[in-house]
């Protein structure tokens, strides 16, 4: 993290607000373990390092806190990282999202399915951009689109209690998923960029069993890749 990084990102993303660029820089530092869980983040240090004022740094940290990447107890610190919580979150996501997909195919309208397709096409586009350009701002946009896509499936189930449960965990869930998106194995984005469209195609068939199966496969696919990343990180930590 230095002033050259922010200048490069401002050049690549000329219309992006400064606080958003700072957010992306800090987010990447967190999910690639450059800033370790529990590390203190001071506004003055970040501002001095990046050559910016403290105001956009504060806005970026507030956004990170809202999404539970950092915690504030006096000072800002990188949120704790728990492999068990990660595993529990992914297992719960498989159950909730598969169940939601099974309900959704029985009651969703064609218009609602079209809206899901729109998100899938955007994810496909961002997936290819991530593969070609490796711009960290594109990674963040992909995370947000992923969050919208998966929450849309939950909403299509028309189950208020299910939605309330999902909204309780969504930020922590996607915090762990973002570790995968910033540290993808080879070929990950080329596969995932197509996978959301496959989900839509299967939901279009309006078959409950097939809908549950395709969403379960999709979420489990990410879970397995994420587990590999966690195992490698644990191994590296032991080596150190």
UniProtKB/TrEMBL annotation:
Listed GO molecular functions? DNA binding; DNA-binding transcription factor activity
Keywords on record: DNA-binding, Transcription, Transcription regulation
Does Repeat appear among the keywords?
Answer: no
Which superkingdom, per the lineage? Answer: Bacteria
Q: Which InterPro entries match?
A: GntR_C, TF_FadR/GntR_C, Tscrpt_reg_HTH_GntR, WH-like_DNA-bd_sf, WH_DNA-bd_sf
Q: Where is the HTH gntR-type domain?
A: 16-85
One Pfam family it belongs to = FCD
- Does the keyword section mention Transcription? yes
Q: Which Gene3D superfamilies match?
A: GntR ligand-binding domain-like, Winged helix-like DNA-binding domain superfamily/Winged helix DNA-binding domain
Q: Which organism is it from?
A: Anaeroglobus geminatus F0357
Q: Tell me the protein's name.
A: FCD domain protein
């Amino acid at each position: 993290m230095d002033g050259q990084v922010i200048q490069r990102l401002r050049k690549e993303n000329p219309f992006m607000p400064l606080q958003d660029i700072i957010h992306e820089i800090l987010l990447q530092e967190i999910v690639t373990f450059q800033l370790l869980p529990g590390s203190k983040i001071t506004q003055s240090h970040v501002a001095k390092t990046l050559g910016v004022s403290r105001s956009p740094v504060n806005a970026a940290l507030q956004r990170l806190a809202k999404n539970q990447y950092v915690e504030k107890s006096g000072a800002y610190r990188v949120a704790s990282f728990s492999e068990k919580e990660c595993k529990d979150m992914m297992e719960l996501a498989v159950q909730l999202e598969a169940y939601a997909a099974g309900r959704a195919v029985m009651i969703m309208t064609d218009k609602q399915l079209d809206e899901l397709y729109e998100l899938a096409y955007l994810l496909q586009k961002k997936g290819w951009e991530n593969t070609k350009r490796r711009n960290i701002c594109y990674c963040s946009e992909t995370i947000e689109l992923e969050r919208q896509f998966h929450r849309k499936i939950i909403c299509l189930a028309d189950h208020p209690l299910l939605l309330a449960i999902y909204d309780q965990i969504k930020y922590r869930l996607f915090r762990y998923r973002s570790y995968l998106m910033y540290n993808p194995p080879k070929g990950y984005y080329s596969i995932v960029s197509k996978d959301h469209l496959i989900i839509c195609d299967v939901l279009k068939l309006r078959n409950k069993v097939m809908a549950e199966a395709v969403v379960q496969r999709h979420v489990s696919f990410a879970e397995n890749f994420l587990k590999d990343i966690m195992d490698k990180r644990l191994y590296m930590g032991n080596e150190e």
